[in-house]
C-alpha cells in the first residue's frame, strides 16, 4: 500500500501541535495564570483596548466562558471593563496598570520560551512552515 502523505502530514501536525501546546502550557503555568487568562491578557497587551467580541475572535474562546474569565481577571486587578457610551451592549476591556506591569514582566519570558521551542528550526524552515500552514488553514476561506 502506498504511503498517504496527507494523512501522515496530518498526524505529524497534530502530534507537534500537542507537544508545543504542552510546552507552552507548562511555561504559562509558572506565571500564576491559566492559558485562557494569559491569552486574554496577551491580546490586550498587544492590541490595546478591545471589545469582548474582539477578544473572543482573537483568542478563539466562546463568549460565555469569556465573561467568567474576564471577571476573574478584573477581580485580580489585571484588567478593567466599561460599557461603550454609544452602545451599552458593547463592553470594552483594557489592561490596568497592574495588568500591564505583569505582562511587561512575563511576556518577554514567554517569548523566550517560544524561541526555545522553535530553536531547533532555522529561519528558512520557520518561514516555510508559516507559509505552508497559512495555505492549509486558509483553504476553506477561498
From TrEMBL:
Q: Is Transcription regulation given among the entry's keywords?
A: yes
| Cited PROSITE patterns | HTH_MARR_2
UniProt keyword annotations, A-Z:
DNA-binding, Transcription, Transcription regulation
Keyword DNA-binding listed? The answer is yes
Q: Which InterPro entries match?
A: ArsR-like_HTH, HTH_MarR-typ, WH-like_DNA-bd_sf, WH_DNA-bd_sf
Which Pfam family, any one of them, does this sequence belong to? Answer: MarR_2
Per the database record, which ranges form the HTH marR-type domain? 6-138
- PANTHER family of this UniProt entry? TRANSCRIPTIONAL REGULATOR, MARR (PTHR42756), TRANSCRIPTIONAL REPRESSOR OF EMRAB OPERON (PTHR42756:SF1)
Protein name per UniProt? MarR family transcriptional regulator
Native organism is Virgibacillus siamensis
Q: What is the lineage of its organism?
A: Bacteria, Bacillati, Bacillota, Bacilli, Bacillales
Amino acid at each position: 500500500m502506498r504511503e498517504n502523505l496527507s494523512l501522515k502530514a496530518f498526524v505529524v501536525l497534530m502530534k507537534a501541535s500537542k507537544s508545543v501546546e504542552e510546552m507552552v502550557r507548562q511555561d504559562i503555568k509558572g506565571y500564576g495564570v491559566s492559558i485562557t487568562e494569559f491569552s486574554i491578557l496577551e491580546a490586550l497587551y498587544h492590541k490595546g483596548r478591545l471589545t469582548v467580541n474582539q477578544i473572543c475572535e482573537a483568542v478563539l474562546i466562546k463568549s460565555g466562558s469569556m465573561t467568567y474569565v474576564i471577571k476573574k481577571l478584573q477581580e485580580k486587578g489585571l484588567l478593567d471593563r466599561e460599557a461603550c457610551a454609544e452602545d451599552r451592549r458593547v463592553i470594552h476591556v483594557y489592561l490596568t496598570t497592574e495588568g500591564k506591569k505583569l505582562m511587561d514582566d512575563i511576556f518577554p519570558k514567554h517569548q523566550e520560551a517560544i524561541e526555545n521551542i522553535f530553536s531547533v528550526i532555522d529561519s528558512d524552515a520557520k518561514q516555510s512552515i508559516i507559509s505552508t500552514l497559512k495555505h492549509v488553514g486558509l483553504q476553506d476561506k477561498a
